Amino acid sequence: xxxxxxxxxxxxxxxxxxxxWVNGYAATSMEDLVTHLGINRGSLYSTFGxxxxxxxxxxxxxxxxxxxxxxxxxxxxAIPLREAINGLLHSSAERTDHRGCLLVNxxxxxxxxxxxxxxxxxxxxxxxxTILIAAFESRRNELADGLTPDQAADLVxxxxxxxxxxxxxxxxIRADSTIQTVLDTLTPKPPARR
Length: 194
What we know:
By secondary structure, the chain is an all-alpha fold.
């Protein structure tokens, strides 16, 4: 009879997300994982299999929690669409941890050599796009004339990921200008205040 686990698998996965997000896959050793996750090597292997399998599970967890936060930011109909997208874009640009987006980082580091990571990242981007399309479909009246929900979703998805990538550097970006351009493309400009 197997012994019960003395750790919470979800908490360990959250710590694995953090470690891979900071170091990337290649620069994260098994010893680093054992130390950072707070479990012994045997428990790590018996629970997750290999480093690669742990990475896949950590990426799946990141995608799931990220999609939930993403959806909450854009689907609240009590918040005007322009304001919701402004909040989403600013949260992407103003990250202070300089880690970028794990989904983008994985795309850049793993997709050329790792079919499973390619599948996971493709699915992740598709699911984010689907969330955005649904939000824009239900609020079509708030979109700029002639802009389809699909076009709006593509614009916001590319803008959020671009802001995260550029925000991962130490350089100061012109985030406010970029965000304003995206908002003006997506939604009619609010009337001027008198």
